[in-house]
Every structure is written in structure tokens, then in C-alpha cells.
Amino acid sequence: MKKSMANGIENDWSPIQASRSARNTINPIRRIVDRMKISPNPAKEMISLSIGDPTHYGNMLPPVEALEAILQAVQLPTSHGYPPSFGILDARKAVAQFWSRSNCQVKPENVILTSGCSHALELCFDCMADPGDNILLPRPGFSLYVTLCQSLGIETRFYDLIPDENWQVNIDHLESLIDDRTRAVLINNPSNPCGAVYTAEHLRKILLVCEQNHLPIIADEIYADMVFPGNEFHFLGMLSENVPIVSCGGIAKRFICPGWRLGWIVVHDRHNLFKDTIQPGLIDLSSRILGPSSVTQAALSHILSETPESYFDDILHQIQSNADYFYHSLLNTPGLQPIMPQGAMYMLIRINTKDFKDIESDKDFFTKLICEESISCLPASVFGIDNFFRIVLTTPTDKTEEACQRILEFYQIKNIVTNTGLSKRTTVIHQFLPEVLSRPSIREQHKQETSSYEQTHARSPTNTKFNSMHENEKRKRTSVHTFMNSYDKDQQNLIKHSKSAADLF
Ligand SMILES: Cc1ncc(COP(=O)(O)O)c(C=O)c1O
């Protein structure tokens, strides 16, 4: 029935249609999570192991050097205008310098700055494939790849990763998917959601297949260098002799500032196969949104050059401690099989549903874990693989321990294994707990470092240069404490006032 509009005119409008691209843009995480009827157990505080935002709990924050660089950048009269859409020269030089190695020099003209790594990936997909072409993606893999390809009308084909071989690529399977509409292979190393880190040998095997089939690689290297001791990160662009590579990265994860929206594409093209095609194409496409924030670009050089190694070590130490804790606590739990990551900030845990009384799938596990234990993780079906769930490893130690304990209790309730099995598992946790608990958290380490710095660097009445350095260091450390404390308060409020579990994804 027609209704009158406010001005009395009869309303014969139909709803305004969204474009095909908008209709085809689907975020698998939202699609699965939003459709589930989930409300956490009101008796238990919600703990999120699902959010891939390392700043969520406030235990991991950007380096002090980066905060200072942003504060300085915002005061510069030159950092408020439109930068070139592909980034200012200073910032592109800084990225080129950051990634240059003795055997491979990156030039600023081969760097394009983007609004985060997601934007870098979108530009690469859009530049390399037309609707109807296909791109090969990892399974399990970061869900954004599918979202972007579907939105652009690009066919997605999935090559398998092998869980029992540290999630290495099944190379034969990858090769079997290639046809004459295949435009590129996406390699994510270190990876989300698996936490896999590929050896040079494995990467060379992938390069060989791409070389034989004349396929370029889109390397998602946002977790570059985030590898646990004993593993090594290899930049695909450095290993490749003949295969052209676009490497997508950014500061979101390594520098713990995902909201600053600064990413990049580094083009490796030893034989000029991209020179007159992909490279200008990427620059043209970057002009659609006029590039990333001018303030973050102005700060980038300082962020990349001044952040000390000890900052990265602290972050990785905390991620690895969480990984160790979960791995050893769940290792002997029939029904749950954690796969130890080698880097990044995630772990996948296999669920053998036959070992549970009333768990039918990873989605069922995920729903019941929220409703009964107020723990949110992500069912790995959002990453294309069933019967696994993903946990994020950036939580503070106390939340990690509490979450792990609740998962074990949940398991105990849902499990049909005899009590003997359970007591064996509990013994394992108790053996492992003291070692993990004895490791200082980043925050504690920071306090310890500050007090030992102050003890060893007592003020000298004669050495004014030293005193000013000392004051500078103290100021940095005080500002980070103040920042952490105010962040804590905001974060507690946010968590307290989250209306439902859906707010936490
Ligand atoms: C594998 C992978 N690539 C890209 C991104 C997006 O990074 P950015 O926040 O810089 O857009 C993420 C974010 O979680 C990711 O896990």
C-alpha cells in the first residue's frame, strides 16, 4: 500500500539498491558471528581470545619512540596537507631502508604507501586480476582475502596448508589449481591464523612452481620478523631470482598500532616484468583514496629507525609465553590438539568432536564456550577449515591463564573420557604452570628495567650531557607508565560496558 510522505506527496519510491560490489562484499567473521545467538555467562567476566587487535587489553602498546614521533609530526606545519597518493618520499625512503639488506637493495620508487596492509592487498588484487580471473589463496587463510576477491569479482581458489607439517603449503595441490585464468598466488608468511613461519627451502619450492607457471606472488608479510627464537623470517622478495613479488606489509602488528592505518607495498621486480604495467597500475589505483594519513607518514621514518630491538623482543616474548602456556596446558587433553606456532600472534587448536559429549563442530564449540565460560575464540571455519579454533596470543598473562583454565574446565564438563585421563591432564598443567608464572610480564619487565636503569645511572653533578640523557630516558619511561595507566582505565570501562559478546569481535 502506498503511504504519503511528509509533504503529502504519495510515496511511490522503491528501496534504493546497493551495487553488486557492495552485495558481494562479505566479511566471513561477521557473517558467522552475527548470526549466532550468543550471550556470555553473566557470572563470568568476558575474556576475548578472538580479537586480532594487540592493543585490546592495553598490555601491548606502540613503542614510546612511535608515540613521540606522532606527537612531533602533528606539530609540523608541513604534515597537514594532501601527500601524494602513493606516499611522501621521506616515508617511502624509510620503508626502503628498513627492508634493504646487503643482498637486496629496495629503492623508494618501488615503495607505495597504503592505508594499512588491507589496502595494500586490495590494490594488488585489483591491479592483477579482472573479474573472472582467479587468485590462489591459502586454506586456512586470513578471511579478508576472500572478502576482497569476492567484492572485485575475482574467483578464489584455495590451496591446502598441512596442519601436521607446521602448516606448510601442499605444493602439489597448489600447482593442480593453476589454469590460464590464474593471475597470482598469495603467500602469507608468518601467517594468520596458523602462526606458521616458512623456511627458505620451503619458500624456494613455492617460487619454483610460480616460476614454471609464470605467476607473480602477492606476499602478505604483515607479520614480517615476528618469529620466535629458533626460526628465521625470509622476505620472499629477497629469495626470488625471477618471480616478481609484491610484498604487502605495515606497522599495525609489529609496532602495535593497527589504528594508525599505515601500510605499504614493496615491489620486487628484478626483470622489469611489472615496470610498465603493475607498478604504474598500483600508483593509479592508489589515487582513488589519496593515500594514508599525512601525520602517520610524517612520523614513519622516526618510527622505523628509532624503535629499539628490545621493544620487539618484549612483544615476542609475551606472545611466545602465551603460546607455550596454551600449548603445554592443552597438549595432553584428548579432544583438543594445539599446533604450536613459530611466529605471528595466533594459534590454531584442533577439536576432535568425537571426544566430546555434545560438541558437533567448531562453531558449536565456539558458541558453547562463550555461553558457558564467557571465552570468545574464532571457529576456524571463518578461515576456510573445519574443526579447529583460533586463539589470539596477545592477552595479558592473567587473562591467558584464566582463559586456559576455563577452556580446561569446559572440556572437563563436555568430555566423556574417564577421570583418570583428566587427572593426568591436570598434572601436566601443574607441572608447567610454575615455569610460565615465573616469567615476568612486559609491564613488570618495564618496571624492573626502569628501576635498574635508575640504580645504575645515578645522577652525576658534573656530567650535564649524561644528566640530560638520563632525564630524557626517565621522561620516556614516565610517559609510557602514564599512558599505560590511563589506557587501562579506558579499557576496563570498555570491557565493562560491552553490551554483548558481539562487541568483542
Ligand atoms: C594476515 C593479515 N594481513 C593483513 C592484515 C591487515 O592489516 P592492516 O591492519 O595493516 O590493514 C591482517 C590483520 O589482522 C592480517 O592478519
UniProtKB/TrEMBL annotation:
Keyword Transferase: yes
InterPro entries found in the cross-reference section: Aminotransferase_I/II_large, PyrdxlP-dep_Trfase, PyrdxlP-dep_Trfase_major, PyrdxlP-dep_Trfase_small, TyrNic_aminoTrfase, Tyrosine_aminoTrfase
Catalysed reactions listed for this entry: L-tyrosine + 2-oxoglutarate = 3-(4-hydroxyphenyl)pyruvate + L-glutamate
Gene3D superfamilies xref list: Aspartate Aminotransferase, domain 1 (3.90.1150.10), Type I PLP-dependent aspartate aminotransferase-like (Major domain) (3.40.640.10)
Descriptive protein name: Tyrosine aminotransferase
PANTHER family for this protein: TYROSINE AMINOTRANSFERASE
Family assignment from sequence similarity: Belongs to the class-I pyridoxal-phosphate-dependent aminotransferase family.
Self-association state and partner proteins as the record states: Homodimer.
EC number(s) stated in the UniProt entry for this protein: 2.6.1.5
Residue span, Aminotransferase class I/classII large domain: 45-407
Pathway the protein takes part in: Amino-acid degradation; L-phenylalanine degradation; acetoacetate and fumarate from L-phenylalanine: step 2/6
Modified residues annotated as N6-(pyridoxal phosphate)lysine in this record: 253
Extent of Polar residues compositional bias: 450-467
A Gene Ontology BP annotation from the UniProt entry: L-phenylalanine catabolic process
Residues in the signal sequence: none
Organism: Rotaria magnacalcarata
Keyword Transferase: yes
GO molecular function: L-tyrosine-2-oxoglutarate transaminase activity; pyridoxal phosphate binding
Disordered: region residues: 441-474
Cofactors required: pyridoxal 5'-phosphate
Task of the protein: Transaminase involved in tyrosine breakdown. Converts tyrosine to p-hydroxyphenylpyruvate.
Record key words, sorted: Aminotransferase, Pyridoxal phosphate, Transferase, Tyrosine catabolism
